[in-house]
Amino acid sequence: MNSAVQPQRLAPNLNGVPETMLLTVWNRAAFAQGTDALLDDPLLLELVRRIDYDFQGRFGKPSPTHAIRSRYADERLRNFLAEHPGATVVALGEGLETQFWRVDDGLVSWYSVDLPEAIDTRRNLLPAHPRNTLLACSALDPAWIDEVAAQRKGPVFVTAAGLFMYFQREEVQTLLRTLVRRLGEGELFFDCIPPWYSRKTLKGLAMTASYQTPPMPFGIALGELDSFIAQIPGLELMQALTYAEPWPRYMRALAWLSRIRPLRQRAAPGLIHCRFHAPD
Question: What is the enclosing helix (H) or strand (E) of 277?
Answer without folding.
Answer: strand 270-277
